[in-house]
Amino acid sequence: MHEARREPVSILMDCDTGIDDALALVYLCSQPHVELVAVTSTPGNVDAEQVARNNLALLDLCGRSDVPVAVGAQAPLGIPLVTTPETHGPQGIGYAELPVSRRGIERRDAVELWVEAARARPGELTALLTAPLTNFALALRAEPRLPELLRGVVIMGGAYYYQGNTTPTAEWNTHVDPEAAAEVFRAFAGQPEERLPIVCALETTERIEMRPEHVAALARAAGCAKPELVDPDHAPGLRSQASNPLVRHLSDMLRFYFEFHRDYDQGYVAHVHDYFAASVAAGTANFSTRTATVHVETSAPRLLGTTIADYRGLWGEAPNARIVWSNQPDEAFKELVAAVGGLAAGLDF
Ligand code: RIB
Ligand code: CA
Predict the structure, then answer these.
(1) Looking at domain 9-346, what is its CATH homologous superfamily?
(2) Is 234 a catalytic residue?
(3) Regarding beta strands 125-130 and 152-156, do their DSSP bridges make them parallel or antiparallel, or are they unpaired?
(4) pLDDT tens by residue, 66-88
């Protein structure tokens, strides 16, 4: 059992912002014990340049224009990029229209940033990966010692003995770039258990199911005067009138996400996968893991990106992952509402 604790943690985040990535990033900005070292942008939900624009705008909104944003790969390692505007919107942030940041991205490539940071601060940095693993795989190619140089790794990716959300067996992040995911898991084989990546996969991240009442609670915690109603009976695309800009933008993102999940018969809910992974990286979640050997399918056309976990050593291969098998959704939303509501209330708009 991994007990929540708020010890200082320094996080390098790679994301494909996306609505749940946005929530994860805002959550990290709300955590005083988290040093957000840098945010790098991988193509996935939208293309890499749009991911970077979203990251810059969100960091500005949270008063964190000090955090560098970089771009690396423009496409997966071996296959063309497929984005998902239907899930996260054409710009990856649902109906939100974020103020465009006046600052630019880092000149350094994301991979260079990762390698330099890990070499400069051995044993100090935690990697949080909420996107296809393209940039991280490239960083491992550039610095094979990354598993030893990093303090920890948290990955949102895969589905283990659980239905996929992109194909019947594959989860989005591992499906967008199966080769990168396979390289990343292979790179950790044989590491001591405490160095194996903590993997947040669909069987537990889909339990973190945000609902309209959580958005209403967030607005209350931010001190919004009027109730923030995101109602399934509203006309699609209705825009929030919340007085707090951070609440307003998050509400506009989540409304889009609620509508997407409903359109795909999952109910008027939003699986906020990446927020859960961020809470694991920040040390604020209670969860349990099981050690396994993970394989990512990279050749069978119908099974591309499918992740399989050997929990019993049947393959006789060294473990390469610690997969989350239990988490606490109610606690997760109490934490999210209090933390992000508090951040929103304290921002000077
Ligand atoms: O399958 C869910 C994952 O894919 C999340 O990281 C979401 O943002 C998308 O990238
Ligand atoms: Ca993501």
Answers:
(1) Ribonucleoside hydrolase-like (3.90.245.10)
(2) no
(3) parallel
(4) 999 999 999 999 999 999 999 99
